[in-house]
Write a structure and sequence with these properties.
The chain is of the alpha+beta class and 703 residues long. Among the domains are: 58-240, no CATH class; 434-567, SH3 type barrels, CATH 2.30.30; 573-658, Alpha-Beta Plaits; 671-697, no CATH class. 67% of the residues lie in helices and 8% in strands. Strand 2 (534-540) and strand 3 (544-548) form a beta hairpin. Helix 3 packs across helix 12 (280-309), helix 10 packs antiparallel against helix 12 and helix 13 packs antiparallel against helix 15 (353-385). The longest helix is centred in the middle third of the chain and has 34 residues, at 400-433. It is elongated, with a radius of gyration of 44 Å. Keywords: Cell membrane, Membrane, Transmembrane, Transmembrane helix.
């Protein structure tokens, strides 16, 4: 072989080398193809294998219990014997020294901040912002003291404890058994304020706050002792594998589920808060959340154990506990979000029920947007804890399925945010343009002043924008999933064309409504006559009007069926009143009395802003068989004429009585011959008969 190679030139040697490499790659590919050609287990077989492994793991942990207790006792014995952390008396002395130094430093810090603490203790907040400020200050002081405690403990341990093993065990004991429970207690005092209800950031009763505080503080004390013992067992070489983690995790999760079950009603109240405008959706979610939390905690523990049985160690006990903490404290975060929103939402603009409804809609939109942001944060945090970077999945280096799925969710979120922003903008404009509510004393039998043109058109604009957002979001989301939306667009065009030809009446109604709105022919709240149908406009849709009649009936009038439209509430209203007085009444005197009444009413505070022209007489309007009909008129803003009319009727009656003027009434006069000799009873009988005859003659005319 060497002689053969020596006889070849360098180029031939290089070509031969390339050929050998190609032959090796071909052989490797054949081997891989052969291995791929072997039958692969089905999905059902894989699931059966996974569940079988999970069951074997659980049985193995229970069988390993004696070894666990043996290892635990052996680790404690090694600790007492001094083979883990050095001589026990030196270890205990080191722990005592570290604790003494840490507590002394923390005590000194607390003495320096005693004035601030006393001020917080003696002060009662008057607003949520002040409450957050006081609680945050108190939490900062507590955490600052704990930070000083930890720093001094580490410094003293490094300076005074010379044996590394003793120092390590002593610091672990201080951290797990002392520092961790105190840190959790400080955080719970910030969230629950168990001993000061006026500083509580959540709507929880004292029993719930104290129960949660005691339960979780005790839980983390037990967890700290468990983690310390686990470290001791590992150092002593007595680690029982995953059995210790299995049973400690089971106990911790069972403890948390029991705490949530006990405080489920209190957690529901925390989610509901103290708002008086809770929605039905919020109430259902508040009642459902404790049970969801318990189910999620059980699922999370099973997921951790199941992945561990498959050899996947990504979901550790610490990560599982962090996920549980996020789920359990989500109601507190939601309450915090609503508290922040209550200070961010701008104050109500305008007056009246429409402005109040718009302000409430604005508040709900802010809360929903904040909740979407909170939910996104929780999902990202849970994914990060589980080892999944959901944001990186949308990048170019992620898989196609994962990237498209993330972008699909982002499109849905963007569409929802656009929907809420539309609601916010419309609600803000409605609140500004809505007139104040009419007085309950107004006899608005013909409606009052309508809303502005903006307030009339905005609801229709909102519907159009929301439909557009919904359609675009759906199409973009479907296209991101790989669905071809071109046939959908073509089908929509065909359907629209078919509707245009087949539903001519509908098209006529919509087009007529567009021109009515362009002409500003009517507005919400105005009283109109549509050619025989009268009423106040309560609702405007794309194809019809909803009118409320004077007797309460609701009329639905399509735009295309309105031959003409009379608006009785635009700009100003003239009301004319008629009064019948006897034939011998001084009409000029009546005119002067009417003028004086009009001037007096113009000076009244409740009417002077609404009357555009005062009440005054117009002279004789008619003469009938009863008396002289005199007329007066006045001009007011739309909807204000009825209150003025009541006042005029009252004052006319008073003034007529004061001036000896009577209202004319129908009389029956019976003329008897002069020589008729009748007594009083006979005269009364004749008068009654004549009155009855007159009534009989006038009855058909009255009908």
């Amino acid at each position: 072989m060497e002689k053969l190679v020596s006889d070849l030139d360098p180029e031939q040697v290089e070509a031969l080398t390339d050929l050998m490499l190609l032959l090796q790659e071909s052989a490797a590919n054949k081997t891989s193809v052969t291995s791929l050609g072997e039958p692969q287990p089905s999905l059902l077989e894989q699931l059966q294998s996974a569940f079988s492994g999970f069951g074997d793991m659980v049985v193995g942990h229970f069988k390993n219990l004696p070894a666990l207790f043996t290892g635990l006792f052996a680790g404690i014995a090694a600790l007492l014997a001094g083979s883990v952390g050095g001589p026990i008396h030196i270890l205990i002395g080191s722990i005592a020294l570290i604790l003494a130094a840490g507590f002394a430093a923390e005590f000194l810090v607390n003495r320096l901040t005693a004035a601030r603490r006393d001020k917080i203790q003696a002060r009662s907040p008057e607003s949520l912002f002040e409450t957050v400020k006081l609680v945050s200050t108190r939490a900062g002081l507590d955490l600052g003291g704990l930070l000083v405690f930890a720093i001094v403990a580490v410094i003293v341990a490094r300076a005074a404890v010379f044996d590394p093993a003793t120092r390590s065990v002593a610091l672990q004991a201080v951290f797990w058994i002392v520092f961790l429970p105190r840190l959790v207690a400080a955080l719970l005092r910030f969230a629950l304020a168990p001993h000061r209800s006026e500083l509580r950031l959540v709507t929880a009763d004292d029993e719930t706050a104290k129960s949660l505080y005691r339960s979780f503080t005790t839980l983390f004390a037990v967890v700290g002792v468990a983690f310390f013992l686990r470290n001791i067992m590992q150092v002593a070489g007595q680690d029982a594998g995953g059995t210790f983690r299995f049973f400690v995790g089971f106990g911790v999760n069972a403890w948390i589920i029991a705490v949530i079950w006990k405080a489920r009603h209190g957690l529901t109240n925390i989610i509901l808060g103290d708002d008086g405008d809770t929605t039905s959706g919020l109430e259902r979610m508040a009642r459902f959340w404790p049970y969801f939390s318990m189910a999620f905690i059980a699922f999370n523990w099973l997921l951790v154990q199941f992945t561990a049985s498959m050899g996947v160690e990504a979901l550790t006990a610490g990560r599982s506990l962090a996920v549980i903490a996020l789920v359990v404290f989500a109601p507190f975060l939601d309450t915090m979000v609503r508290g922040i929103v209550s200070h961010v939402v701008p104050p109500m603009q305008g007056d009246g029920p429409v402005a109040e409804a718009a302000h409430m809609q604005t508040r709900h939109s802010y809360v929903r947007i904040a909740r979407v942001a909170l939910l996104a944060f929780l999902v990202l945090m849970v994914g990060r804890i589980y080892g999944l970077n959901l944001l990186a999945l949308g990048a170019n280096d992620g898989s196609a399925v994962a990237r498209n799925s993330v972008i699909f969710l982002l499109i849905l979120a963007a569409g929802y945010l656009a929907w809420e922003i539309t609601n916010l903008w419309v609600a803000h404009q409605l609140a500004k343009d809505s007139p104040p509510a009419q007085s309950e004393d107004d006899d608005a039998e013909m409606g009052g002043a309508g809303k502005s043109r903006t307030a009339t058109i905005l609801p229709l604009i909102r519907i159009i924008l929301q439909i557009t957002i919904l359609v675009l979001t759906a199409l973009l989301a479907l296209s991101q999933l790989g669905i071809n939306i071109t046939p959908l667009l073509a089908g929509a065009g065909v359907v629209g064309l078919a509707v245009g030809f087949g539903a001519q009446t509908l098209v006529k109604d919509v087009v007529s409504g567009i021109f009515f709105l362009m002409d500003d022919a009517f507005r919400l709240g105005e009283f109109i006559d549509t050619g025989g149908t009268q009423g106040s406009i309560e609702k405007i849709s794309i194809r019809s009007l909803q009118l409320r009649g004077t007797r309460g009936a609701v009329h639905i009038v399509p735009y295309g069926e309105i031959p003409k439209l009379t608006n009785l509430s635009r700009d100003w209203v003239i009301m004319k009143l008629k009064f019948t007085v006897p034939f011998d009444t001084d009409v000029e005197k009546v005119r002067k009395l009417f003028k004086r009444i009009g001037q007096d009413i113009m000076e009244m505070e409740e009417f002077k802003e609404d009357i555009l022209a005062p009440f005054k007489g117009q002279g004789v309007a008619d003469v009938d068989d009863v008396g002289i009909v005199v007329r007066g008129k006045f001009t007011t803003k739309p909807g204000k004429q009825f209150g003025v009319r009541k006042e005029i009727y009252k004052r006319v009656q008073q003034v007529f009585e004061e001036n000896g003027i009577q209202f004319a009434r129908k009389e029956v006069r019976v003329q008897l011959p002069e020589n008729t000799d009748l007594d009083d009873k006979q005269k009364e009988a004749v008068a009654a008969g004549a009155a009855a005859a007159a009534a009989t003659e006038t009855k058909p005319a009255a009908q």
